[in-house]
Amino acid sequence: MGRPIVRLKDVADKTGFSVNTVSLALRGSPRIPEDTAMRIRDAARALNYMPNQVAKSLVSRETKTIGLVLTDITNPALTQAAQSIELALAELGYSTLFATSNNDLEEEKRVIAMFQSRQVDGMLIYPRSHRELDHIRQLRRANYPVVLLVADPDAGVDAVSIDERRGAYRAVRHLIDIGHKRIGIIDSANLLGNHEKREGYDAALHEANIAVDPQLSADPQGHSVIRGYWAMDKLMRLSQRPSAVFAANDSLAIGALRWTQKNGLRVPEDVAIVGFDNIEFAEHAATPLTSVNYEIRLVTDLAVARLIELIGTEGALPEPSVTLIDPELIVRESTHRRS
């Protein structure tokens, strides 16, 4: 058997005050004199009294919890985003429940349904696919507060995200501007329908009148360092190697960098490398990596603010709002101008 539950009545019996007086004191009501409130709080601590959050949520219709759905907990950028979201919500009096879809659409649907059953007040979601969003649009149509943290501008759901097209365009444009024409790309997102980074890559090449060569595209079939290593191996075995490589995240870029170290190539003299997300490891890699900055704090603060706004809306939710943040390219030693 578990420990007996301490009720407000138990605190009232111990102090001699009414249940209503005890309740007001524990909620910090100014109607209760400070000396009385102090006696009641001391008694509550001695009895190990804990407020009944379930009962409170039935009255207020709020559980003060938010569901956060991640695609991959091992992704350093998402881990940092989760921490930022948890801290921001805690300041507002909310708890965060975490779940991971592991890039599986059915698992994403399952964890969203689980959060609904837990009656969370709203959800923040990194969707597996930026275009397979019908199950999330259904939530929005049902007046349920939900904000995406990556999305297509036409998602039809509230979203706050880095403009991934613009970020990839800037990365590749930088490589072109320093003299590269044969630029490889390591990106596994296309099969998921997440085309933004690839579209930014293509746009920069087209603008510079450089033909897109399908051979210069490597699907790492994952997002980890080792996947980046083997994708780089594929690119560098071509008879006409790329002189530069754009990787869709920094873990892939670090894997590509590791391949060059194992195979005796110099970065950036023999091949330049650019990543995406600007995680801490990018700056402290053996050759510090140029990377597109994922402004985690800005994204998460804006997303949390929008979600709280939706939760506080009386009646029908407002029209969905999509905010795309124009990212900065952080240039480091892994790229430099070609002679």
TrEMBL record:
CDD domains: HTH_LacI, PBP1_LacI_sugar_binding-like. It holds the Pfam family Peripla_BP_3. It comes from the Bacteria. One of its GO terms (molecular function) is DNA-binding transcription factor activity. Keywords: DNA-binding, Transcription, Transcription regulation. SUPFAM superfamilies: lambda repressor-like DNA-binding domains (SSF47413), Periplasmic binding protein-like I (SSF53822). Residues 6-60 form the HTH lacI-type domain. SMART domains: HTH_LACI (SM00354). PANTHER family: HTH-TYPE TRANSCRIPTIONAL REGULATOR GALS, LACI-RELATED TRANSCRIPTIONAL REPRESSOR. This is Substrate-binding domain-containing protein.
